[in-house]
Amino acid sequence: MVRKNQSSSSPSEAEEGELSDSPVEHIDGIKAQNYEKRRNFEEEERGRRGRKDSREGDDKLRHRRVENGKRRDTDREDQRRRSERDDSEEEERQDRRREEDRSTGRRKEEDGDVKDDRRDRSRRRNECDDGQDNGHRRRRDSNKHAYRDEDRDSDRKARRMDRERGRRRDDKDGYKDEDSDSDSDRKDRRRDRERGRRRDDIDGHRDRERGRRRDEREKDSRRRDDDREVEGRDRKKVDRNLTESEINNDSGKGNENPKVVVQKEENLGRSGGVYIPPYKLARMMKEVQDKSSVEYQRMSWDALRKSINGLVNKVNATNIKNIIPELFAENLIRGRGLFCRSCMKSQMASPGFTDVFAALVAVANTKFPEVGELLLRRIILQLQRAYKRNDKPQLLAAVKFIAHLVNQQVVHELIALELLTVLLENPTDDSVEVAVGFVTECGSMLQDLCPRGLHGIFERFRGILHEGEIDKRVQFLIEGLFALRKAKFQGYPAVRPELDLVEQEDQLTHEVSLSDEIDPEITLDIFKADPNFLENEKKYEELKKSILGEESDDEADSDGGSEDEDEDEDESDEEEEEKMQIKDETETNLVNLRRTIYLTIMSSVDFEEAGHKLLKIKLEPGQEMELCIMLLECCSQERTYLRYYGLLGQRFCMINKVHQENFEKCFVQQYSMIHRLETNKLRNVAKFFAHLLGTDALPWHVLSYIRLTEEDTTSSSRIFIKILFQELSEHLGIRLLNERLNDPTMQDSFESIFPKDNPKNTRFSINFFTSIGLGGITENLREYLKNMPRLIMQQQKPVSESDESGSASSDDSDSSESESSSSSKESESDSGSDDRRRKRRRR
């Protein structure tokens, strides 16, 4: 039964085993599937991330290429702008050089060069014969220049096209190679391309500059040739007219002197002929018998031109009163063109003397108004030309001349306002700068004559400043102009006192608009024969006598008494100068000196540098005290005492005894006002003087001013004495300080500090020094206080003896006095009794 049950139970157990094993295997399968899924998911994620990174890398690369392209374009644009700016600047420089060359050429031509005169004479001689050849030659030269210009332009275009093709090719190759090569290779290629481009740009710029300079030279040469041809034609016409008039005169006279015509033709030239020395010219003028002849007129014209040029070049603010009579002695009516041209040339050469030339013109304008009007027209014409050509130096000169003529009231103020309106209508850096200079020169006069118009101009300046479109430098100029207006144009007076030569009632003012058509009357600068030459000269002589005649007539009569009058005038001038002494009550110079000393002290690195700089300051007699005061003030203003000030004061005391005496005065002054100082300032001042005393820079007898008693000191003065002696003990030591204070030669100076006149004062001094820790320096004073009763007793003995002797002598004197008084009483009684007897007898 048992076996059957076991056998029968086995199949059931096997089934249970199979059932028990199958769940485990199922779980393992599920785990494996999950693992596979997770691994597949991770692989997909890695793939997705890789694709994303590759896309981002492509985007970054594409973005980098775009940025590089933009940067390359911006670099090219900046380089192009830079090259254009350089080209414009170079063109401006070339224009300035050309204008300078033209001005120098004009000066040489006006001064009269001998070589040019010879060439002109030879050209005039050969012009009739070689007229056709010259025409062919000029046409041939112009064709050559045209061919050269065309070839040069074609070469430039070809070079430019080659450079552009090379750049495009480099750009394409660079873009192809950038995809395949590494970053370092791309950078190297990019750097090489940039270097090549820069080299090409530099070469191209050099070629352009060389071509431009060559073109400018050729153009200048052509202009000179054209100007010379025109001048030659004009001279030829003038010479032809002159020769015809001379031939007619000679034919009318019978042709008696044919050599004169040849001599005249030889003397003809661009500026009046070949240079003739003054003595030779005067001799030739004397030799000419016919004063109305053309030859004599030409000689007088040359003499007039040289005289006017010499006077204008010689004038300045000191000798203008002497130049004016000499100028009126010349024929200004005939030479008004020469006078105006000479003034303009001299003013252009030296703009600093513009006010002097304006004063000279103002004086001439009072007698000859046509001179002032002609000069004004020519200056306005010069201004218009310079404004159109953008010639800044010439524009500045013309504007400055007009400004000073406005100050002299030769020119109306409306012209100044019109000029400022034109300059500020379309403001640029140069026009605003010119306007600022103009207002600076004549703003004081415009403020008096037309304040509303000047206010409108300043409002326009303010608008330009708010717009901010001009350069910073010009904005600063406008701000400076506003500050100058606020100061009422101080430093820029309308007319200097030495140049105020014309009364306001005598001055004639001219008004010419800038928009009017102006005739400069250039023919007045050229010699022309005058048929009424002698009559005009006589008229001007009479006019000159009316202007200068009184002075010339009185000169002969006043020669005898002029010396006495001069002496009297000199004495009176000296007396007036002694009486009139101007004193500056505002102390402006003193404030500026103190500021200079303060800045020098505070800006120096060490005391040696400060002393070297301060010694370089030029001090007037009596100002040495200011140096010591400022040094002490700077020391007292510090938070803590700096040894820098003590060393600096020591150096000055050692250098000069004057500074030592000044520091003694400062010590006395500071101690007398010590109660006014704060504790910090008091401490710094005490340490400063302690340093000077400890180094023997300051003598010790200054301590005699200190009186150490309870009645004569205050809390501030006791603190000062305490700090002073404590610093001395630290610097010298208590032993050396005691030796100094016990010096027998200095006891008179120390009696006030160690008083021995009263035991109370002596005890106060001993207690004071003991309380501050310096009782060691009072040993002698303590001994004196111990021995004081004995000394008093010794002093009282001779006093008592002297009192006894004095009493005895007083008794004797009293007895003698009593006797004398009794005798006098007796005599008086006797005299009184006699008087009574006489009265009785009379009765």
TrEMBL record:
Keyword presence, Nucleus: yes
Keywords: mRNA processing, mRNA splicing, Nucleus, Translation regulation
Region forming the signal peptide: none
Domain annotation MI: ranges: 592-708
Coiled-coil ranges per UniProt: none
Localization terms from the record: Nucleus
Keyword Nucleus attached: yes
Region of interest (Disordered), ranges: 1-259, 545-586, 795-843
Family annotation (InterPro entries): ARM-type_fold, CWC22_splicing_factor, Initiation_fac_eIF4g_MI, MIF4G-like_typ-3
Entries under SMART domains matching the protein: MA3, MIF4G
Biased amino acid composition, Polar residues: 244-254
Biased composition, class Acidic residues, residue ranges: 550-578
Compositional bias (Basic and acidic residues): 23-85, 93-128, 143-243, 825-836
PANTHER family per UniProt: CELL CYCLE CONTROL PROTEIN CWF22-RELATED (PTHR18034), PRE-MRNA-SPLICING FACTOR CWC22 HOMOLOG (PTHR18034:SF3)
Family that this chain belongs to: Belongs to the CWC22 family.
Name of the protein described by the UniProt record: MI domain-containing protein
Species for this entry: Coffea arabica (Arabian coffee)
